[in-house]
Amino acid sequence: MPGDADATRKRLLDAAMKEFGAYGIAGARVDRIAAEAASNKAQIYHYFGSKDRLFDAVFNQLVVRTMAETPIDATDLPEYAGKLFDGFEQYPEVQRLATWYRLERAGSDEPLELIMQSNAHKVEAIAKAQKDGLIPAKYEPIVLLALVLQLSALWTGLTPEYAMLVSRTSAAERRKVVTDAVAALLKD
Amino acid sequence: MPGDADATRKRLLDAAMKEFGAYGIAGARVDRIAAEAASNKAQIYHYFGSKDRLFDAVFNQLVVRTMAETPIDATDLPEYAGKLFDGFEQYPEVQRLATWYRLERAGSDEPLELIMQSNAHKVEAIAKAQKDGLIPAKYEPIVLLALVLQLSALWTGLTPEYAMLVSRTSAAERRKVVTDAVAALLKD
Predict the structure, then answer these.
(1) What is the pLDDT of residues A113-149, one digit of tens each?
(2) Domain residue limits, chain A
(3) Which residues of chain B neighbour A150 with C-beta distances below 8 Å?
(4) Residues 31 through 70 of chain B touching chain A, CB cutoff 8 Å
(5) How many whole angstroms separate alpha carbon B115 and alpha carbon B113?
(6) Higher per-residue confidence, B156 vs B143
């Protein structure tokens, strides 16, 4: 039944997200994912082809969700950074997966099409806002986007030692640091 | 002979830095490190005790080097960020190791003493410069330090897809983005 197949696929993706988030691509174990999803390795290979393609499926799903829930507003980049921050707070695994991806796929010559498209769309939105004089043009669009993304991820990139020092800060305070910092970049 | 022991230890640390940088803590293989260092697994356990403690030794060595080569100047944080950027350009493995550390030791209750000391020292330097009125006090010292570190690492945190888009930027241009962004944060 197609319903069963969809349910199995979803359970596998959910289990894979946990496993990849905890152990990365190389460290993830397909048999643990299968067990967690009450499935088996054969089904994983049937649905996804390989561990790497399963990771891509999880990662694409996350990017799609993030894109859908956080559309860019180039005329209000501080709030865009704040919304990205909210997403990282709500789904901590997103940043962990993105970081594993970066470490383990560094130098890869197989970029994910969806990410290329997502980046291109955001860069265009920023370029248009700059052209329309709505935001300063002192940074190249791609560079400004990199700054906004990096600042929005400020609190997810902390070492354990650092996290201990800032753990007393509230989510609202952390969010304000992010939005203030992006606003400061945009001042002339 | 002590000279031989020192040379072996150094070769093991160098080989371990490469291996951990490429594969992380879980993914690193002690036998590859031993082979690369023309040594053997018994010597690794003799000198370092375990794979985890070998990682700590590599990581401590890097932090010591970074601290020694990049002392903080709290009255010129843009240039401090620029010097951190220079370090990341010169030793790309530093950021990779720091990122593996963060991912694989997240939630660890065994913080590295040296990092705690290094952070505390930097926070004190920033607090003093703020107290002396040399830099704005709008961010808490620990938060300002986090912002400076995050911005200095702007270019090391890119996904492969993103890196493709910015690969045409020169090192001098990338450095200027970092120092300009930190300067913008410090404006009133």
Answers:
(1) 777 888 889 999 999 999 999 999 999 999 999 999 9
(2) 1-51, 70-186
(3) 150-151, 153-154, 157
(4) none
(5) 5
(6) B143
- Tally of residues, chain A: 188
The 8-class DSSP code of residue A142 comes to H
B1-56 classified as CATH 1.10.3720.10: no
Fold of A70-186: Tetracycline Repressor; domain 2 (1.10.357)
> Hunting for tokens 């806002």 — which residue is that?
A129
* Structure-token pair, residue B117: 């000391």
| Cβ-based contacts of B153 with chain A (< 8 Å) | 150, 157
Q: How far does the CA of residue A58 sit from the closest CA of chain B (Å)?
A: 16
User: Hey, is B157 helix, strand or coil?
Assistant: coil
Residues B86-111 pLDDT 10s: 988 888 888 888 888 888 887 666 77
Determine the CATH number of domain A1-51: 1.10.10.60
Per-residue pLDDT tens digits for B123-147: 999 999 999 999 999 999 999 999 9
Query: What SS3 class is residue A170?
Result: coil
**pLDDT for A91:** 83
Model-level pTM? 0.86
The answer for B 130-159 residues in CB contact with A (under 8 A) is: 139, 142-143, 146-147, 150-151, 153-155, 157-159
CA-CA distance, A10 to A27, in Å (whole number)? Answer: 21
**Fold annotation for B70-188:** Tetracycline Repressor; domain 2 (1.10.357)
